[in-house]
Amino acid sequence: MIKKRKRNREKDIEYNKTYRVKNKESIKKYKEKYRSENREKSNKHQKIYRIKNKEIVNKKSQEYAQRLKKAVYDFYGNKCACCSLEESSVLQIDHVNNDGYKDRDKRGRKIAGAPLYLRIAKQGFPNIYQILCANCNFSKRIRGTCYHRSNHL
Prior knowledge:
The chain is mainly alpha-helical. The chain is 59% helix and 7% strand.
C-alpha cells in the first residue's frame, strides 16, 4: 500500500506541474486578485516568509539585481563609450547630458544600483545613458569632458 501512495503522489505532483504550466496566466490573475482583496493578510505572510527565509530572499534579490545589471550593460555595449575599456569592475552608468541630479526617487534621494537598472529597463533603454569607465566618468564630472577627448593628450 505504501508503494501505491508513493506512485499516486508522484502522479499528483506531475499533474500539478503540468496544470501550472498550462494555466499560468489564470493562476497569476487569481493570485493578483487574491492579494489585492487580502492586502494585509498577504503582506503579513510575505513579511513572515522574508524573516524565516532571509538568506534565500537575499540571494534571489542579488541574482535579480545581477540579471538587471547584465541586461543594461549588454544593451549599452559592455565597454566604456569613450576609451572602449571592457573591464567590468570599473564600468559605471553615466548620464550623457550630465543631468543625473534629475534621477531621484519619490523621496528625493538619488537612484543607483538595481533601482536604476530597473528604471532604465522599464524606460526601454533610452539613449540618455551610456557606460563609462570610472576614469572617464570622473574626468567628465570634473572637467566637463573626458580627458581622452580633450587636447591634453
